[in-house]
Amino acid sequence: MSTSAAAPSPQPARVVLAEADIDRALTRIAHEILEANKGSKDLVLLGIPRRGYPLARRLAAKIAATDPGVKAENITGQLDVTMFRDDLKRQPTRAPLPTQLPATGIDDKVVVLVDDVLYSGRTIRAALDALVDLGRPRIVRLAVLVDRGHRELPIRADHVGKNLPTSSAEKVRVRLAETDSVDGRPVNEVVIEDRTA
Amino acid sequence: MSATPNEATAYLVKGAAIGSGAAADLLIRNGVITETGTGLSVAGATVIDAEGLVAVPGMVDLHTHLREPGREDAETVETGSRAAALGGFTAVHAMANSSPVADTAGVVEQVYTLGRKAGWTDVRPVGAVTIGLAGERLAELGAMADSRARVRVFSDDGICVHDPVLMRRALEYVKAFDGVIAQHAQEPRLTDGAQMNEGDVSAVLGMTGWPAVAEESIIARDVLLAQHVDSRLHVCHVSTAGSVEIIRWAKQRGIKVTAEVTPHHLWLTDELVRSYDPVYKVNPPLRTDEDVQALRAGLADGTIDIIGTDHAPHPSEAKECEWAQAAMGMTGLETALSVVQHTMIESGLIGWDDFARITSRMPAQIGRLQDQGQPLEAGSAANITLIDPAARWTVEPNKMATMGRNSPFAGRELPGRVVATFYQGHPTVLDGSLNTPRTAEGE
Amino acid sequence: MRHLLSTEDLGKDDAVRILDTAEEMAAVSDREVKKLPVLRGRTVVNLFFEDSTRTRISFEAAAKRLSADVINFAAKGSSVSKGESLKDTAQTLEAMGADAVVIRHWASGAPARLAASGWIDAAVVNAGDGTHEHPTQALLDAFTMRRNWARINGTASPGTDLSGMKVAIVGDVLHSRVARSNLWLLRTLGADVTMVAPPTLLPVGVAKWPCTVSYDLDETLAAGPDAVMMLRLQGERMNAAFFPSTREYSRRWGFDDRRLQALDSHGLKETIIMHPGPMNRGLEISAAAADSPRSTVLQQVRNGVSVRMAALYLLLSGETHAAPATIQEAQR
User: Fold this and answer.
1) Predicted TM-score (pTM) of this structure
2) What's the CATH number where B228 sits?
3) Smaller CB count within 10 Å for chain A: N or C?
4) Among partner residues C27, C33, C313, which is closest to A99 by beta-carbon distance?
5) B213/B236 Cα distance (integer angstroms)
């Protein structure tokens, strides 16, 4: 192969979900959650840092909007799974983030784990282990904004914003206004980038 | 052994600069420089092309630890004198802290004989001042002086003769045979448990400090004692700016004091101890840069008379441990020339004539060695070191002749290389490598 | 962070990260299940060349809460005291597969030596070396101070430093690894430090330290410190002419009842009294001071486990040096 041939021009990041798409997807998931649970009783939404947590808050806000008896902050929490990962030796050191549970705790609750992208399933495996040490929920469900496939464990999501068939050479980036900005501007979008470039 | 009487060979060294002076040829025959001049040509002589090299009188070390007898795992007279030859030395003074201590005529004669047998350099035993270096009773200094080893330098080096009365008596007594007491100046109570120079670095590292005053107070006392009894005093390994001041003051008063500095104290500082690498652990300790500069200035102006290597080889296990557990000392024979060239000559403080003074003439004079330290002229004993001042080399302790691997200069690039060493007319080193030992007469 | 050897070479980001991580570890310690699986299958060796039951137990608890296997190696009274060298001991631990070595040694610099020697590949944690440093003690002290400082200022402590805090460290500074480690860390975190000691118990060279030096404890207390840290006075100092008598020492440099009342009369409501333990009650600290609500001695012990968990986690969780060059991206 000629090395002087022009390198393939890197695929520009491709937007697969824009701000309005994300919002629509979350609205639908919120309804699904309420439907599956037959209401908001005993619901707890636990976001997985970093981007699962803002998504959990948005979902909780949507749920609270449909059910005046619910206060969003009372059913939302953050579940840090850093200490339960199985790949710590392969990653740069990461400092754990706080785990914060709603005052009601999680015993006998219906816990919905919320994350941005479902990929290998290892994060969710870690989250399930972390949950066990914190209490005993009645049911655990999983809601994700994007399911990109390539599962390495027998784990599936109960609520999916969008199924995205991807190749493993691609990278799915979720940007949320709460955690991300581009050129100093907060953005809400999901993009696919080619990592081989 | 070889049947060839190797002194019979004539050597013609052509074109070496004589110290700081012009280039000249040196004809060596029967252990003596027989002729100097330019354009010499002698039939049958082995010609050594010394263009670009510097010739100085064979270097004399007044302060070497050869470890034999007793610590042959650290060094032997054979290995130590090979290192000496490679380092350009035609005479070394073997310190008395062997095991048994060199405190009797028997031990000093043993070391002397081992040196003669080795044949790489003139091994001159130093006699202990006190029995067993215990600092309590004088050793038989006269017997050692009268022995075949003809000891003139006496020292308890490693330990200070701290009892002022004993020091006074020793200074007085050696006058009977023109001896000199070489003092290891270290007040023992002020250095109890000391690990390194006491100062900014020891404060941070949390190591027991070795105050400069522990050295300076002993030197101050000793120069006053030497003055009082009109005796010769030599101060080993001066390491502090204050010591230089005291010695300068004493010399101005006409006190018969001479002083030595090691190559490592001319360069290295206690900042290196931050690594906690025991290769930098030495007695006296590495001091500050201010001290280094004062030592260089004192050496340049003659306050400090000589370079003494304090070559102190140790087996690797003595250094592969915690700092506090490690032995004190550094090797120095094979790096002395280069370190002095780097610190003193290339810094512009001295020239090669001064180098000859501080590494040969003065140490020979202090040790009363008749056939060492002589000028490179016809009639002088042929003890000559040929140096390539333009050479550069990287210190690799594993490649040294000494058994000690504890060189603090490991990995550093140094200037200057010994090309040849003539010991009583015989080349112990040629082309920078060991040649053959000189076979002693009658053996 | 490959090793934790001193606070002198610990950057502010790393220091704050350890303290923040310790906050999360402290939260775990409050749970019913006080254990994390994060160091499962890793081996932590406590290599103690000097007795210190407290420090060893603290490290042991920390390692066990992270699910590591713990081997305690009391080198005192073992083959080590019979001439086995640090090198041989290190190589033995290496052969046993130690991932971290927590070393306590009577000789200053021994942990640094172990880390730099190439004898062992494990992460080295300095658990106190001679009179040099005791970095995890300083970190737990800073953690304790930070929590109090944040409480006074009405802020949350994660992410914050100690800017503006005034700390007095009192006692045998010369022989104290705690004082040294605290000084460097407190400076890094922005606190002002005053060392209070008899002149004989300050090192030559202290003038170059980034702190104020005082011989007068009363004057220092009147200046309104936010924390007063009393150092332990070792028994062997008493016979080495550092001071005339323990009574005189206590009177001038001990935190006695009179000085406890002085804090009140100076209006210093929030000033805390710290001690790394074990305390010599009645010597450097009075019983009333040690047991007063100002005392953080037990908080310090509790925080010690959290801080050591954080240190072990951060040292052992990152990429190992044998890791492949291509690092997989953290993709969920």
Assistant:
1) 0.90
2) 3.20.20.140
3) N
4) C27
5) 16
